[in-house]
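Hi R.,

Here are the chain sequences for the assembly we discussed:
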Amino acid sequence: MLRVRCPAWWCIVADHRVSSDPAKSALAFESPVVCDNPASNGGGDLTLSDISSTVKWLVRAGAEGPAADLLDAQFGTSRAAAGGALVLGSRPGEWIVVGTASEVAAAVAGIDGLEEQEFCSALDWTHGRAMFRVTGASAPRMLEKVCGLDWSDHMTPDGAVVSASVALVTCDIARNDRDGVRSYLIFCDRSFGQYLFDALIDAGNEFGLSADATF
Amino acid sequence: MTMSRQGVQPNEVIDRSTKLRFRWNGKRFSGFEGDTIASALAASGEQIFSRSMKYHRPRGILTADYWDPNLMVQVGDDPNVRAGHRLLEGGMDVRSQNAWPSLNRDIKAANRFLGRFLTAGFYYKTFMRPQWLWPTYERVLATFAPGGKIDLDTPHAYHDKRYTHPDVVVAGAGPAGIEAALAASSAGASVLLVEHEHAVGGHLRYSSDAADQADLAELRAALEASDIEVLTNSTMTGRYEDNWLGIVQRNHPVAVERLIKARAKTLVVAPGLIERPYVFEGNDRPGVITSGAARRLVNLWGIKPGERAVVFSANAEGDAAAADLERVGTEIAAVIDGRAGGRISSTTGSSRAVEAVMVAGPNGAQRIEADVLVVAAGWTAPTSLLNMAGDRPVYDPAAARFFPSDPPSIVLATGGLAGDGDLDGLRRHGADTGRLAASRAAAVRHRLQARTARAAPVNGDEPAWAPDERPPLGRDPHPELYRADTHGMVDMSEDISSKDLVAAAHEGYDSVELAKRYTTATMGPSQGKLETVNTVAAIAEARGETISEVGTTVWRPPFAPITLGALAGRMFEPVRVSSIHPWHEANNVSVIQAGQWLRPDHYGDPQAEVRNVRRNVGLIDVTPLGKLDLRGPDVPKLLSLLYVNKWMKLGIGRVRYGMMCAEDGVVLDDGVTGRLGEDHYMMSTTSSGAGGVWEWVENWLQTERPDWQVHVTPVTTAYASINVAGPKSRELMSRVCEGVGLDAEAFPYMTVRDATVAGVTGCFMWRIGFTGELSFELHVPAGHGLHVWEALMEAGSDLGVGPFGLEGQRIMRLEKGHFIVGQDTDGLTLGPSTGMGSLIKLDKDDFAGKPELAWAADRSLPMVVAIQPDDPDVVPEEAAQIVRGDTNEILGRITSSRHSPTLNRSICLGQVEPDLAAGGTKLTVLLESGERISATVIDHHAHFDPAGERLRG
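And here is the predicted structure of the full complex:
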């Protein structure tokens, strides 16, 4: 673990535990999801993808401070970092950074220099969180079946980040449109992954959902 | 009265080219697509559809719509179906309810001869005494319960749930409601329009007026061209705080029913008016119908309601009904004009049909032969949604109905509910209402966006709250027609007559709320839509007061009855599995659900699994063990605060057991915490306590010690956790681990090490063990958990490695005497009672529960002890009581018990009074069978290897 110490402030930056991209690891990353019926009831514009292998880091620091300035994603919003990672302001003083290992490393690299200014930490969360992407014009209607939030453009525009119950599982959700098409990233505790994947398939069936597991 | 199908009507909703065959009480019938069950039966000449609740009087069509109290039937295994609303489907098996042996010959109709005794409060008065007979009463009364039959074998249907957040929700798609929706949509609002009936249009649907039909066509076209979401055959069942709305959608293509929870920024209430029956003798005789029923039968389904009719009309709808009847060939024997003072008095005929109508006159009643009586006596304003919003509608005697008073500003009424007018006037008011609703919704939306972090940025200040400048609708005069000069049924769902209500008032139940509950008037399936105002009028008459003085009951949700299936919605039951679960499933696992986790209980023979661990080596998937990643310089202070023992000097690479107590000193959780780095710790919790402990830790940090630098992250399932236990565990681990010494000196008991296991980096493992065996607890990045498990199984095949489940683990921990929080402790068990009092360091500055534990230190407390039955073959049940000798004085209880395959005897943990805790104490255990057995407290908790030699390896 890379750790920098200063007399008054602590900054624990990187954990050695999972420092490589699982998708490129010699060992196959075992997804939490088994997709038994990859194109269940397909035919609509809606797709559900299991992208749990995406590298995910959790960064914590002050809600307003150097780390917050560096990550530059306020609570409830997200932004694409210069290196390609997506930075989600998931809670006040908490960010989820997703992408390939190199993209994520680039996004959080600057935190290494903040040790004298504030207490912050970052840990690799890749193995702890399942991650799905739902894409399609019907995606809001599908989410309405499993989550009580307002998915309108006013309340949840592209780039919005929110924490909510999805089919009774606590999730982080980020709207991340693809080529102008509605798209949402959904993160949950890995152990709920299969349950949630199945629940999303069930919710999407009436919209002609096609599901695929990338692993 | 014999109804019959007539020629094609201009606005009929049936498709005469599509014939649907169905069964009614076992006989074959047919109808057309677009028919309701009731219209199809009526067109076939059926007159009797049900029997009344108490007196089993034959009942025919009254309103021919959703609210008709006389049209409840059973369809297949679906009871209490509203035949006036449910559309006919081919192959339906429709049966009557509440009649035996048949609808036509119902033996229970004998009840009508007991009618004088079955007055309001009959059950309360009659079945109070003797109290001991109540079970018998209950059984007998249950056989008289009305309603259909529930088939317990019916498979669970797919009921769905949906949330939505429109700017404006409009309840009711009559002309005013449609206009409101269109205007709101034009103003930029997102709109949801909810209609109770199968199609939009309200009363225009069954109007025969060409101009009305042109208007309806225009409105429908505008709706289709709009972005408005229209839900037909859907009922808004309730309005709750802040416009939280419940809507049941009955025509969803996928689900049987869908419960929609809508959060509307503004709500437009436009349900129209519901025609009110008139109370007179014989008003429930088949052949008495409302004017709306007559118009629906004629215009929607092409049905002639009878051969010769008397029309009692006090409004234009009654006049139009007379015209409709004439058009289809019904002879109009008389039109009695209620506006001009004309009154009807009663009907005569058999119990099954009207034969004549008695019309009141200055020289006594005049008899007019007729087989159908059409009544247009006035309207009930269904103000339910306004009531639910806090409004208290006001009665206007000149218009003979209630009107909205002062609903919240985000709830707006329009249409007939708000007043009268011609069609243009109603449409204008609807449009004005829609614009106002959209304007106010925009202000609400602005406010919501401005205060929601994730929302789109808002421009400018919040829009001003638009004043209500709608020109009000008028109020047409209408005679107050509630009861004739005779008594009749007020509530046909519950068989409550005006006489019953008068009697209740005279008995002292003169408050409308009391009378309602005493008589059950308005409490049937119609939920007061037909009965409420007549009930109030009857009580007012009995009290000699006005309707305004009596007031109404408060309409509460649901607006219409709602099925339990719809309320339940989709069954979300989250379950959690570890990354190793696929292996368990492929290997004969018996799963146990522990909280939300699906865990291996055993793989066929838990006793054999124990023997294998004691002899060779076993693997158990312990992924659900809570794991909290703790980082920061203040972690030792946090641990010292939350655990009863000391933590300030835990060295890197060391692991320590800790017991956590709540502020009342009661044991909250326990587990080990390892120091992984300078400022990096991993706390483990019990599996069941993982969530609670995380909240506990965060609560302390966020509310009591916000200045401490600690970050806590739950990583329970970031790691697959595998306990490798048994005398050959070190050998097995040596075959898969790299970069770590495994001997007792390099890796002693209660230490933690990083490791590469089966090629997986980023693992850590600690030398602890719940089983009492030499153990290595591996924590592997979850995405490689299955790989490591399989590698261990393969590498240990010659060592006799095998899996073991929770049951085996529970046996072994009991052999070793480890208590389980929540199993061997309870909500009153203080820390010292666990036998681990020495762990509690009262010399620490402070920690959670310290004052209570300091108090407890000087007291004798119940103690957790290890117990062995003297007969080794008897395993007392968990929770068996420990009693004093032959008495029933309770001295403790068995908290855990199993047969130990290692010791070949029964073993237990239990809680006992302090004076029974010493080793060698004899106990008496009362078994569930009533047998008492003797048992002995042993010297220490461990039944097996008390010195811990195997554990330390």
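The longest strand of chain B covers residues 667-677. Chain B touches chain A through 59 residues (CB under 8 Å).

Let me know if anything looks off.

Best,
T.
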